[in-house]
């Protein structure tokens, strides 16, 4: 989609109904396709201070952009608005902000930025979204493109020592791995949780755990998913793995094992978690609040589990023995508290 959205099958629902009406969950990946680029060919040139990245800490798709923005040191160049973890049928609100209004955009709901650009916007109001602060209009909600553009279009604003998360020589391999991870893992957990039939659920469960076995094999001999440094592929896998035991194992019935019972993936995930830019962007309570309160068809009581104890994420990992250079020739971002 470029600039005029049409109504197609999508994942946005109202009134807490998320389970697919058909057999399988069908995610909408038809995004607002205008992009912020160096040459401004979509009408939105790269410009420090102009755009606001709107996220929810709970959301794994938005979490990618939070991590990448921080790894690249774009915090002073692209500001960030944070929606609260829960939302109603009109979607995300700035309820964490004073007065319930985003201090830069001056709006209470992310929907306002979508409707400013497309008054009849017919689809889900999703995070992450980039908003043009000069007009208050949404520019894009294109999940996979947002982070790749941060890596490739914003290079002149990257911090000194920023890693190359999408190295040219490895792009084909990163795309290939990311595609498998998207279908079977990132979206695979949703296909387990929102399946409309036993058959759909079991098919999604089998694909998910086969892919996790495949990833375990791949990662048993190499520290990172592609090449010997952290790339976009690792960011995309991490945001699902970090939610696995807290949410997907129980709430989405992705329960052959917990992540913490899959030795290679658990070690790999802790390696990333303990790297600045990853674990320090994880908000456990917001993650749990989102899934357990918003999906009322899966969890009608909206009771949020107290566990699991997340202290095990700080247990040292043994991945350094595999070699690899997390940031390549670059450096880690400054550590920050959550
Ligand atoms: N639909 C996109 C966007 C990401 C997305 O679905 N975000 C969710 C939160 S995790 C969202 O904003 N949902 C609100 C809605 O659909 O109303 C995707 O599949 O990648």
Describe the SSE topology.
Blueprint lengths: L50 E6 L3 H12 L7 E5 L26 H8 L11 E4 L4 E4 L2 H10 L18 H16 L1 H6 L4 H23 L11 H20 L11 H11 L10 H11 L44
Parallel strand pairs: 1-2
Antiparallel strand pairs: 1-3, 3-4
Bound molecules: glutathione.
Glutathione binds next to loops.
Highlighted features:
mainly alpha; globular; 338 residues; 9 helices; binds glutathione; single chain
Structural class of the helices, strands and pairings?
mainly alpha
Helix content: 25-40%
What's the mean pLDDT score? 93
Largest sheet: 4 strands, mixed
* Order of strands across the main sheet: 2-1-3-4
Radius of gyration, taken over Cα atoms and rounded to an integer in Å: 19 Å
Could you state the oligomeric state of the chains shown? single chain
């Amino acid at each position: 989609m470029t600039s005029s959205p049409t109504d197609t099958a999508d994942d946005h629902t109202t009134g807490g109904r998320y389970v697919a009406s058909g057999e399988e969950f069908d995610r909408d990946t038809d995004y607002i396709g205008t992009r912020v680029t160096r040459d401004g060919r979509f009408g939105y040139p790269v410009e420090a201070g102009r755009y606001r990245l709107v996220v929810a800490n709970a959301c794994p798709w938005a979490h990618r952009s939070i991590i990448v923005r921080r790894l690249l040191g774009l915090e002073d160049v692209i500001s960030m608005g944070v929606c609260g973890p829960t939302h109603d049928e009109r979607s995300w609100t700035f309820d964490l902000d004073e007065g319930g209004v985003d201090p830069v955009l001056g709006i209470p709901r992310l929907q306002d930025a979508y409707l400013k650009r497309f008054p009849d916007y017919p689809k889900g109001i999703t995070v992450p979204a980039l908003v043009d602060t000069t007009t208050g209009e949404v520019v894009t909600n294109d999940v996979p493109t947002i982070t790749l553009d941060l890596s490739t279009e914003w290079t002149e604003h990257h911090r000194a020592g920023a890693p190359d998360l999408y190295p040219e020589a490895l792009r084909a391999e990163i795309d290939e791995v990311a595609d498998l991870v998207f279908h079977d893992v990132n979206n695979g957990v949703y296909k387990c949780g929102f399946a409309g039939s036993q058959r759909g659920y079991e098919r999604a469960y089998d694909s998910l755990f086969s892919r996790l076995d495949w990833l375990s094999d791949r990662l048993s001999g190499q520290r990172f998913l592609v090449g010997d440094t952290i790339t976009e592929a690792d960011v995309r896998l991490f945001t699902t793995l970090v939610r696995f035991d807290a949410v997907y194992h129980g709430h989405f019935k992705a329960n052959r094992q917990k992540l913490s019972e899959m030795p290679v993936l658990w070690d790999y995930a802790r390696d990333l978690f303990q790297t600045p830019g990853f674990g320090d962007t994880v908000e456990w309570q917001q993650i749990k609040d989102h899934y357990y309160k918003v999906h009322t068809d899966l969890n009608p009581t909206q009771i949020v589990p107290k566990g699991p104890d997340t202290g095990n994420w700080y247990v040292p990992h043994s991945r350094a023995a595999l070699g690899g250079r997390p940031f390549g020739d670059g450096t880690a971002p400054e550590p920050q508290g959550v």
